[in-house]
Amino acid sequence: MALFRAALLPLALLPAVLAAPAPVDPAHPMITPPPTRVKREPSLTDDIDSYVHSILGDASSWVASGIPAFFQGFPTGTAVLSSLGISDGDLDAKPTQILNLPAYGNWTDEGWNVRIHGNVFKQPNISQSKVDDLANVFLIDVDIKDLPADQQAQARNVTESIFVVQQDDQNVTMNFVNDVSVRPGASGGAVNARGGAQSINLPYLTTAEGDFDAFVKLRNTTGSTGGHMLPGNATSSIQTLNMYANGTLTGNATAYLVPPTGFTIISDIDDILRVTKIYEPKEGLLNSFARPFTQWENMPQIYANWSASIPDFHFHYLTTTPEQVTRNYMEFIYKTYPLGSFDTRPLNFSDVSATLSIRRFLLDKIFQTFPQRKFVLVADTTNSDVMKAYPALYKDYPGQVQCIFLRNTSATDSGNKFPYNTEGFKDIPQNNYMFFRVPDDLTNLDIVNGQCYNATIPQNVTFKTQGLPFGLGNAAGSLAPPSTWAVAVVMFGMSLAALL
């Protein structure tokens, strides 16, 4: 039966493949209200197999958003307490912790402003046996006890990070200190700010989900050596300040003060910077919950070269993975790739439809924060929201998108069977975008001067839905994708073949 469900998985993808998403007005991005949550967290007596397969049944949304379906519908707040049988009194004695995301700051007529964002939470006590039961929900055909010791530890850590209790109506105070140890070439030539140390109380309390997100104005205080922060209109360098959340040892991050002009790279993470395989459920689960994060081929060398060769290159990492599980992402990035600011999915974007809008919302925010900077956009073809948003940004913000680089995962990974739509690239000059197969395809480009295309790399772009069965839609000038019924017949035939 499990094999039959897996074989019929392509049929579940038809709505996502063939239905055109509703357009989003980039001029007025709105945060959707918190959706009504259906209780998705398992009790320890649930049928774990049926729970996992209920998640994987939403594979179309999984691939459309570019994040695994097991990163949807996490319990929050009191739902965590009730699912674990923990009382408010048991939690009161626990210390408050803060997830503080690396920030970007911009220069305005009023000086430097920094966007501070993250989450306030408490970590309840959960027995190891209960953690193991919960971790097994997210693993397919394997028990946590059968994993190597290091993978058991990571699976438990990730599971515990999911079952935290967010704290609403909290004051957040951030202490800025100019004590960043900047590695040479680690982030486009970033430098430690010579002043700017201060404490700032955020203007708003945390949301019902424990989130905080606000721009705050920095005073140009004098540093210990008598220096000050350089005005953004008088320097091209990215200045850095460390941020320490008041009252906790867990809320440390770095703020990057980015000048009005220059180049910023906005990079996705899954299946472009690390091996995730979100399109293969079992592998995606193991790679996200248990296995150590692994770089994708020699992509770190590509980013290191860009950091060293493109002056004052600002790196910004954007993942729509929810906040609870992003610590591993940040640790991996800062051990493997150039330093930079970070965006993730706030908890009020918690259902599938909201997930599909959050990437565009965050992209609009940074484009509008830096209207004079040029952007390099990097991701892969498994994300339908990327395939729509990236070309739309080129048209919605004229002159700001310098390059679009998209890894064609289906060209090199036989496990990726999901189609992708290249229609949005039809009116974009070839020099501004490239579909690539391996990191080395990104060498010998001149990003600063707008040469973003390596003519030796075949593109095979049809400006239609591509990657359909039997090569349908993959040839230039080919017919449009067949009707829903015809595709269903083809995919059903493939499913039957898998059963035989």
From TrEMBL:
Annotated Gene Ontology cellular component terms = actin cortical patch
Alphabetized, the UniProt keywords read: Signal
InterPro entries from the UniProt entry: APP1_cat, Mg2+_PAP
Task: Report the superkingdom from the record.
Answer: Eukaryota
All copies of the Phosphatidate phosphatase APP1 catalytic domain together span: 263-408
Give this protein's Gene Ontology molecular function annotations. Answer: phosphatidate phosphatase activity
Q: Which Pfam families match?
A: APP1_cat (PF09949)
Q: Where is the signal peptide?
A: 1-19
Return the protein name. Phosphatidate phosphatase APP1 catalytic domain-containing protein
